[in-house]
Amino acid sequence: MLEYIDHFGISEATISEVFSHALRRGGHFSEIYFEHTIDNLITMEEGIVKEAVKRISHGAGVRVVHDESAGYAYTEDITPEKLIEASKIASSITSSEPVTKPGKLSQTTFTNIYKIEELTSNTELKQKIKWIEEAEKAAKKYDPHIEKVTVSIIDSLSYIQIATSDGAFLQDVRPIMRIIVTAVAEKNGTRQIGISSGGGRIGNEYFRVKASPSFHGNEAARQAMLLFDAINAPAGTMELILAPAESGILLHESVGHPLEADFIRKGTSAYTGRIGEKVASELVTVIDDGTIPNDRGSLNFDDEGTITQKTVLIEKGILKGYMHDKISAKHFDTNPTGNGRRESYMYPPIPRMTVTYLANGESDPEEIIRSTKRGIYCKSFRGGQVDISNGDFVFSPIEAYLVEDGKIKVPVKNLTLIGNGPDVLSRVTMVGNDFAFSDGRWTCGKGQNVPVGVGLPTIKISQITIGGSDLS
Amino acid sequence: MDEYKKLAQRAVDMAVASGAETAEVHLRETVDFDVLVRKGKIENLNESTSRSISITLSVDKRKAIVSSSDLKEESISKLIKEGIELCRIMDRDEYFGLPEEDELGSVDKDLAIFDPETLKVETERKIEIAREVESAALKLDARIISDGGFFSNTVQKIVLANSAGFCNSYQRTFNSFGVSCAIDEIRKEGENTGKKQASYWYSTSIFFSALEPIQKIAQTAVERTIRKLGAVKPETQRVPIVMDNTTASEFLGYLASALSGGNIYRKASFLVDKLNKKIASEKVTIVDDPLLQSKLGSRPFDGEGVRSRKNLLVERGVLKSYLLSTYQARKLGLKTTGNAGGRSNLYIEPGPHPPEKIIESVDNGLYLTFMSGPGANIVTGDFSKGAQGIWIRNGKLDHPVDEFTVASTFQDMLNGISMIGNDLDWRRAVSAPTIKVENITISGI
Description:
The complex is a heterodimer. Chain A is of the alpha+beta class. Helices cover 19% and strands 40% of the residues of chain A. Among the domains of chain A are: 120-155 and 176-230, PmbA/TldD fold (2-Layer Sandwich), CATH 3.30.2290.10; 235-467, no CATH class. In chain A, the strands form 4 sheets. In chain A, strands 1, 2, 3, 4, 5, 6 and 7 form a 7-stranded mixed beta sheet that branches. In chain A, α3 (125-142) runs parallel beside α5. Chain B is α+β, with helices and mostly antiparallel strands. Chain B is built from 10 helices and 17 strands. Chain B has helices spanning 2-17, 73-89, 116-120, 123-140, 214-226, 245-259, 261-265, 326-332, 355-360, 410-415, and strands at 22-38, 41-59, 62-68, 145-162, 167-184, 196-205, 237-243, 286-288, 311-315, 318-319, 346-348, 364-372, 382-393, 396-409, 417-420, 430-431, 435-443. In chain B, α1 packs across α2 and α4 (123-140) packs across α5 (214-226). Chain B is globular and about 75 Å long. The model of chain B has no long low-confidence stretch (mean pLDDT 95). The chains are: A alpha+beta, B alpha+beta.
């Protein structure tokens, strides 16, 4: 495990003093979140290493919770005085007699799931430049039509310390890294763009064990070139096949967000009050698991100090559970699920996904394609969005093909797929046996950005609306 | 403020003394307050002050950026030293440099973007506004499920100093409040249960006293929610669409990105090589104007200290200018437009038509009120988005529609703009009136 270094210099006595101020006006619970993060970015563009960026974020936030009310304030000047000032602001949400006394702190133990061989954040820039050049070269070499290539390596290292008024005390070092290659190709006056990206809570061994820089260079260029041969996607309803891994974005949008328990607690989600009901085809089992080793969405413990876990959301089509933070867990009289997350010390935690995936099935992926009369086969995605209340979700493929009479045919472009969460999941008619996690490239934005993971085997959906522009 | 200016200047001096050829220092202090009230109780209350310094350094035209939330002088000094080390490893970029000296400066005109009253509003009053807007919405219709009333405000100090002698600052304020509502959808035979419809409305203003009436915002939020009830999926077809001023503004936001100099020199925009060419219907004129009084995007200088000026981007359908920083301009052989950091107040010039008249002109088409998903590709111009709205029949808003997409290309949509409304709405810095676009593919049933 990476060595934890204290960047805050705050004693246990100070923490307990902060809590006594925080709970003075009747708050039930309080926590202090300390963060020291170093972000690094290096970018090559137009064949030159153009920019290096280093950013240090240092701050601590105090939250006071009273029933379902939460007050939050942070400071970037981590001193006892400033922390007490923050705790007073956060405590202003209530004004009653104190009911809770802070407990004595004791260190919580956990299993480390970020197994790092060689930390990217400590790597010499010269080595990063070599990888960047390798990726750039691969993209350029792919085709003479490749016009502009941009490659970045982004890494960050966060020292996190959480103390809670009920006595939990946790310290963690969270590493994360990612490579992104963008290739723009020009052919007969038109342009296409391809993007390839990957990483995780992993070190430089990513390039050796998962995907090399040249793989990403090659992949970005391949995507861009492929799109020159793509035809406009059809408009109307059709069968849909999703390739493994990245297509997990469908789950993230269609059921992931609506099962985050803040929406359930407020009664705005289409899945409110439906535990035990059938909400999907019996082939569908959906899981959120923050313990997948080295995944971009995983955490040793969440940003409220709850150890992460595997949570079954839907089991064989039946709604089993929601993703909780401490506030929603208390509301539903259950345990938090390790889904209380935040972007940084500037934000209070809210229920968020970690790594959300659809469990493996039994069908042969080849058979899934063979059984399709006319449909769309999607391989990679730009992203998606959901309307929590009515359940409508969209996702936009980058690489997709027309399928006719059981065979994958021409690539298609310019399409957004739209469906209704409960509807679409009840139309899952085949689930493949080729499950895979997506490479680590996803960031989810729900007011705050957090890294997440997704996964899926090949699946078939009997009907969905394909939002292309071709009416013929 | 003077203290921050001194610190910024001090950082520039330290950078130069440490061997930087150029240095540009951004210093920012932001005081944020926001409160969300649900069912009359505080759901969240956040209040904090954040400070940050960001320093762009170069040595022999090799560039690095370092930033931190720690403003102690010894920390800044250490950061600068690390930045200079980073510079030495970078490649030389001959286009890099500070703006020309005659471009640097701050406009004299008072833009009226700072409201001293904003600082004085009592926390209790702010909570009360959030509570009142929620309770007003709940009173309007018993079916409404509240997703909360909110109030937020921000006071920001911005300082910029560089090694060419520029050192200036300004302050700005921002106030907003609003309410989000949901409502149970009418259940149809054999349908999945649990479906709801949701919407929201809000007011924004530089000046606390210029916020719109609470009742009006609640009313609009409730109307926008209720009118979605009973939505059906439309048939797949090609029709004219009327984008309300919210979705039209979102559309303009994508254009801002396509017009940005960074995407132009990277060849990542469908507007590459289109200067002085017709890119849109001649009804379309697009302007970026940082000098407007009391607008959210107004500023006296841009992100690198270039004096603000009004820019005509598209004039009667012809592309006249991109949004350019000094670096982007040099890459393209052009001059900066004062848009380092992006657009300011970007708008489509309003036309003569009231929105109702535009709707009346459509026999069979869509009134578009919401778009979703990442399906706007500014490199190719491909456009395909999830959509919600109201179907127009014989010139009248007929019934709500959802779970469908709208698709075309930016090129065709810009050329297909046939009517422009008179309802420019400055609650956002990117603002377009209602617009009618011909020939859009609706993909539904």
